[in-house]
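We emphasize that the prediction below concerns an isolated chain of 235 residues; any contacts that depend on oligomerization or on bound cofactors are therefore not represented. The input was used exactly as deposited, without trimming of termini.
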Amino acid sequence: APAPVASAPAAAKVMVVGTDAAYAPFESQNEKGEIVGFDIDVAKAVAAKAGIEVKFVNTPWEGIFNALGQGDRDMIASAVTITEERKQSMDFSDPYFDAQQLIAVKEGSKVAKFADLKKLKVGVQTGTTGDEAVTKLLGKTSTNIKRFESTPLALKELESGGVDAVVADNGVVIHHVANNPGSKFKTVSDKEFAPEQYGFAFKKGNVELQSKVNKALAEIKADGTYDKIYAQYFG
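Result of the prediction step, given as a token string:
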């Protein structure tokens, strides 16, 4: 029988990572068009630990999971919330970020909890967990919900007084508030919001890459690399 063809060592392969680079501070493009952000830095650190070469490809959210399923991307690093529904069609790394919804309001606002938004005008990013939560609270037909293409656009509307509050992922809100002190925003959290976790996504059954990434993720958490990256983005 012919000898089996020796497969190239894994290190020689480049891991192609898909990311929708329109979600600062997790992934976005800088002035030079390079893909940067928290997810990118964590993925780079993981790849370095695992001895894997990595290449990031900007991939629109609408087609990102199809690209993964077809094998055009080896991994997705794009603030992907781990859900039971998604687990049916893809595999996830261990969580690398704890997310939850946060309410952003002006400093003088009386809003103290999520239920206080019932009679107010609320801005959300279309199709996000924040959109779902606010739709549930205010009702599907509510004209008080204003939907935006991005969370920063919703926050701009809050600044100009077009909405009374914005509900969005904590990381995006904290980043914006920290970088725009002139906006005079404050954040309000509420136990009502279910905790969410972000994970890296793999094609279903790609156990080899999944276990490599998990091992490297545990290592960067243990040696302080992860904390250093976290502090850089979230203080």
